[in-house]
Here is the input.
Amino acid sequence: MASCRYCKSVTLPGDKICYTCGRVIASNREGGYRLEQQFDEGSKESTFMMTKQPRAKGIVMTSSGREKNIFKRRKNRFRSVALVAFVAFVMLSPQAREAMLGEFSSIDEFIASATATYLPYQVESTYTVSKTSVVQPMSGYGAERIILPPTLYSNFGEDQHFVYENGDVEDNVVLQQTLKIEIVIGSQRYNIPTNGVPHKYYDGLGSSAPIVTNSGFKIWYPGLFDPSTMNSDEEKYYCNVANCVMVQPVFDGNRPAEYSFEATVNSLSYSWWDNSRVDNRVGGKEFGINVENSGTTNDYALRSSQIAQQFSNDQHFSDYGSYKIDGTASIIDEAAAQVSQRLPEGLSDNAYAFARATFDYLHEKVVYDKLAPTPARTGPECLAANKGDCDEQTNAFLSILRTKGIPGWYVFGLLTDYTFSDTGWEAHAWGYIQLPLSDEWCEDKGITLSSCFVNAQVDVVNNKWLLSTTTAYVDWVEEYESKNAENVFDYYRPSSPGYDRDRSYTTIGNVDNAQGGFQVKKYPEYF
Here is the structure.
């Protein structure tokens, strides 16, 4: 959610004024907002001004000077849409109503769908994103590690989507693939292997020397540091969490140094949700999960899920003296109890139902905070504040899931808008979760129970439930290291100590969106 930059009250996409303080926000396009919940630019006819004298709430002045009660207009519009939807439903034939309720679980869900806001996405996109670093002069050694984006598959962490009882496998679907990587310094471009192989090493550390540019910059891609075979004082010359390219700039006196990392990526939207709300052009539904074919929270132990053993500890990722994901806090227990109370009888141990109800619960209880503090709030702190940014709401979501043993872990990258605008990109964090499919569904498909899970993305802030979209560039997905998650700590610190750099992101050239777009509506799931 966004907020008014004057009084910080919550606003919705498309709002032209703040409905709390009455100030105009139509031109508010600050980069700190969640990019997929942008404001419209507005027009002279649809943009309102404050009245010349104080008036009651909702009274504004149009461009012609006429006073108008926008609260009344907004409420009446919603009521009208809801009434039209209800009347349309009633006027349908019994057969049509039955078919409609086959798609929606209740009349409430039908009306919610008719009145819901939505976000647009592309089915498939090929684009080039540039990460530009401007580095302030420094003395001594200084370099930045830039992670090479991974090839992302539909079943993260596994070689195949499913394994069948007869030995056959269901192949993974490629969701993100890097086509080309270049480092750009001035007018010079240097091609980098998309997987960082064959490696190049810093001076004297390997058989292949770094690239040295005309201006003296050094570029190398050395692979991960191995503490079992390398000296600790060499660690700074190697990647720390995943394959990367490293850049050591050269400064001209007191002038900053600048370089860009450009990645050309093909990305495919994909859903792990088997539901009629998913556009048929988006792949994945045939092997997706829902409340009917979900397994239980007991299935993780019964099937010896390795991911659950790694990512369902009560506490995870220690930073600044506290765990960001913390299922032991009393406020998390209280939230989990409230979520469970919302579930109908018979769904108390349904893994899908609890995870989805938690997703909807956070939409109701927590608003987006574009002025989130540093260090980031923990999951319990996010719930206590009733607000949080992308990291913090992910912390809260995964914390609540930990109370039921549902595993979840981090994914980091960039986020842009539907049009891939030049100024649309910003850093982003969201989550992966694992959900078991039911024994009956797995056996009917002939799938081994040990492989019968979905590993799916969830972005609470941007209403992406079990959904990967082309507008999310995945930089790195957390791999288990320990309960303290030292590699997550390292991800947030990619540069040498004292390395002062500003980072910006832009889209380079044209974007190919050949398959068109689809919409994702925002309203809760009704069980």
Observations:
- The chain has a mean pLDDT of 87.
- The chain is about 20% helix and 25% strand.
- The longest strand covers residues 124-135.
- Residues 2-120 form one domain.
